[in-house]
Amino acid sequence: MLLISIRNLCKTYFKYLKDYLQEEGIEIHTNAKIIEIEHDGNEKIIKVVHNNVESTFKAEHILIAAGRKPNTHNLGLEKIGINLGKKREIIVDEFMKAGENIWAAGDVIGEPMLETIAAREGMIATNNALSEEKIKMDYRIVPHAIFTNPQVGSVGFTDLQANRLGYDCRCNTIPIGFVAKSKILNDDRGVLKIVINRKTEEILGIHILSTNAADLIHEGVMIVKNHMTLDDVISTIHVFPTLSEAIKLTAQSFKRDISVISCCIE
């Protein structure tokens, strides 16, 4: 069973996003360990260590995003043959089966811990527990979004993931500024990347950094889910002017120089 971590998806656009956020005056410090938090009136004083150097920051508010972990302690799961992972998540197969006549779904099976995914996992687990017609959970087509400005939307494999799985893949990335709608919105920040199987031209992944990327990615979900090829996307009419044209333009970029083609040409 393949789980696609959003941590891997972020790497594709981290540098772009970091630059955009820093242009807005946001300071970003990664891999910093917080060692102490103090109050000074309405301010918070945060002491951190980064690369063995201690620094101090002041803030009005602190947002702690500590994540979640499976609540499987002290349940005696091992006694009934349930295998647990390093984070004590229940190990299941692609049918959500954890053992003989045992199925599991949701946060207890580990990442990605999202309610939309848990709902799908729960439906599949219930179906497979009660029906002879079995359904597989396909994490390949689970969309991910990060609601930054601009947003990140991703579905399918990155090029690194595709290579690890044995695909001979090819990738193309275009600036969102190629899309007319970005000029109308006065926001051409971002890029769109498509990953394909070089031999078949099947689209394996779509990754977007742009305004409304969380909405745009759903077209990508349908493309990846239905094993569509570059030609399938290129031959699909897109409304002009829309940000969705970026998906078609990126598909076209595998076959021609999109910087010299006029609007709406296939």
TrEMBL record:
Instruction: Provide the cofactor list for this protein.
Output: FAD
Pfam families, per this entry? Pyr_redox_2, Pyr_redox_dim
Q: Does the keyword Flavoprotein apply?
A: yes
Q: Which InterPro entries match?
A: Class-I_Pyr_Nuc-Dis_Oxidored, FAD/NAD-bd_sf, FAD/NAD-binding_dom, FAD/NAD-linked_Rdtase_dimer_sf, Pyr_nucl-diS_OxRdtase_dimer
Occurrences of domain FAD/NAD(P)-binding (ranges): 15-122
The similarity annotation says: Belongs to the class-I pyridine nucleotide-disulfide oxidoreductase family.
Name of this chain's protein: Pyridine nucleotide-disulphide oxidoreductase dimerisation domain-containing protein
What is the organism field in this record? marine sediment metagenome
